[in-house]
Write a structure and sequence with these properties.
It is a single chain. Helices cover 50% and strands 20% of the residues. The chain is α+β, with helices and mostly antiparallel strands. β7 and β8 form a beta hairpin. α1 crosses α7 and α10 packs across α11. It starts with a helix and ends with a strand.
């Protein structure tokens, strides 16, 4: 009996599982709600990431705009300072040229001549001195004092340019070590002196201290890998902060970055450095329109570093937040699924026979109504089987209710084995009565199922001392209907049950252990 009991327990579990599945289908699976919840969580996560992403993008743009504005302001301030001082020097040079045009200037005493020429000399922090050189390049007047220092500049570029061309205008020389100022690196600004006939009479030149300009640039705080540069128009770096290693001179003339700066005159752009190849933000201008270029080259990495730190923090927080949403959604969905299954299980218990695990009469009534409506729609026949265990009262009286319960469970298991189609519904109708609803099954098919069930009970060979045959047997009543031929009404489906019940009564009246069938007219 052990193997038989195991089979019976398995069939009872299967029966309850089928009822549970049916209840879950009717009540609606939590999976659909879970999918909606997942979509909602995904939407929330994407929304959070979108908001944070937009905020980070705006923050990045703000950081970039702030760097551009700062670079422009620094360049503008330095340009005004450097350009203003050079214009002061230029005005002083013009005063010297005007004084030299006075008649009989050289007949005046030296001190008077000095006052005439250099009374308007600029007090620029960048100026070393203003000197006048004759057509041979010899110094003939010096702002440093009445006594003129001995100096010949005939070989200097700023002298040769004016001697060769009358229209050179204001000329800016190449850097050179100034012999009159302890070899300090200087540049010269020069103007041509000429007679009334246009002949070359010499130059007036002012020497500017590049060290003083360097000190001015050194007062500007710069980020790492950033620099300030003062260029001549040929690309030579006159001053750089921070200085190049070893103070080596360098010319960037011909490089794409410098040529763009030279062509556009002023502006802001991003490009690669010709010195170290890194990406820089360039802001540049020409101070006071002079033949000089001043630029600030800011490291884009340093500009973005604070933003990158902020972005990393916000990205980590957003990932944690989105992760929390996902985890909470998962936990909520798991709890919802557990509760839904528990509720479905409780609902299934309400429509399940506790002894056999089959559906109870209430569940059968619901299934009958559902399948009857379906049969009306699809135009297919429907059959109903009523089953009764023969002489079962005598079985209980002789063997006891425990063995009687085992017999009921055994028949329920056989009934489940027979009712394999998804829409077949087996149920315990009451006491020793069972029933089987068979949608889309005609009379011949229903009789075939009934015979298979009787044969399975016969193979069971369960002793029954109260039966004339000595074995447990079944009486079966069958009813088949075509719902399309029935008059619509609230009791339509009950006609099928009543017909099967009458067929069962006739089978029992005819001696039991037989199958009787009726059609629903």
């Amino acid at each position: 009996m052990g193997r038989l009991d195991q089979g019976r327990r398995r069939n009872r579990t299967i029966g309850r599982g089928m009822v549970l599945e049916q209840v879950e289908r009717e009540a609606g699976s939590p999976a659909r709600f879970g999918r909606r919840l997942n979509l909602l969580a995904l939407g929330i996560a994407l929304g959070v990431m979108g908001v944070i992403g937009a905020s980070l993008w705006q923050s990045r743009q703000d950081a970039w705009d702030s760097a551009e504005i700062g670079a422009r302001n620094v360049i503008a301030a330095l340009g005004r300072d450097i350009g203003g001082n050079i214009r002061l020097v230029e005005a002083a040079m013009q005063g010297v040229a005007d004084g030299l045009a006075l008649p009989h200037l050289w007949d005046y005493p030296d001190d008077v001549r000095y006052l005439i020429l250099f009374d308007r000399s600029a007090r620029s922090p960048y100026l070393h001195s203003i000197m006048v050189f004759d057509a041979a390049g010899e110094a003939v007047a010096d702002s440093n004092g009445i006594a003129v220092r001995r100096l010949n500049v005939a070989e200097r570029d700023f002298f040769q340019v004016h001697r060769a061309a009358a229209d050179a205008g204001l000329f800016l020389s190449q850097p050179f070590p100034n012999r009159l100022h302890d070899g300090a690196t200087s540049i010269a600004i020069s103007r041509r002196l000429q007679g009334a006939d246009g002949s070359f009479r010499g130059v007036v030149a002012a020497t500017l201290s590049l060290s003083a300009v360097q000190q001015r640039l050194a007062g500007i705080a710069l980020a790492e890998n950033s620099s300030l540069n003062l260029f001549a128009l040929d690309g030579s770096i006159l001053v750089r902060q921070p200085p190049l290693p070893g103070g080596a001179p360098l010319s960037l003339g011909g490089t794409p970055t410098f040529e763009r700066i030279k062509a556009e005159r002023e502006g802001v752009f991003t490009g690669s450095s010709a010195i170290d190849g890194s990406l820089k933000l360039y802001a540049f201008t020409r101070p006071e329109g002079l033949p000089l270029i001043l630029d600030a080259a800011l490291s884009t990495r340093e500009i973005m570093q604070p933003w990158l730190r902020k972005a990393a923090i916000l990205a980590a927080l957003s990932l944690l937040l989105c992760g929390a949403v996902v985890v909470l959604t998962f936990l909520f969905q798991r709890e919802l699924t557990r509760r839904s299954r528990l509720e479905a299980a409780l609902a299934a218990l309400a429509v399940t026979d506790a002894l056999t695990g089959l559906a109870n009469r209430r569940a059968m009534d619901q299934a009958l109504e559902r399948e009857w409506r379906a049969a009306r729609r699809n135009g297919r026949p429907i059959s109903f089987m009523m089953i009764d265990l023969d002489w079962f009262k005598q079985f209980n009286d002789f063997y006891g209710h425990t063995d009687g319960d085992q017999a009921l469970r055994a028949v329920a298991g056989l009934l489940l084995d027979i009712a394999r189609r998804p829409r077949d519904q087996a149920a315990r109708y009451g006491g020793e009565e069972f029933c089987l609803l068979m949608p889309e099954t005609d009379a011949a098919g229903a009789r075939s199922v009934a015979r298979a069930l009787q044969a399975a009970v016969g193979r069971l060979a369960m002793p029954h001392a109260g039966s004339p045959s000595g074995l447990l047997s079944l009486s079966i009543g069958l009813a088949t209907a075509d719902p399309r031929l029935q008059e619509p009404g609230p009791e339509d489906a009950l006609q099928l049950v009543e017909a099967a019940d009458r067929a069962l009564y006739r089978a029992k009246a005819a001696g039991r252990d037989r199958i009787e069938a009726r059609s629903v007219a």
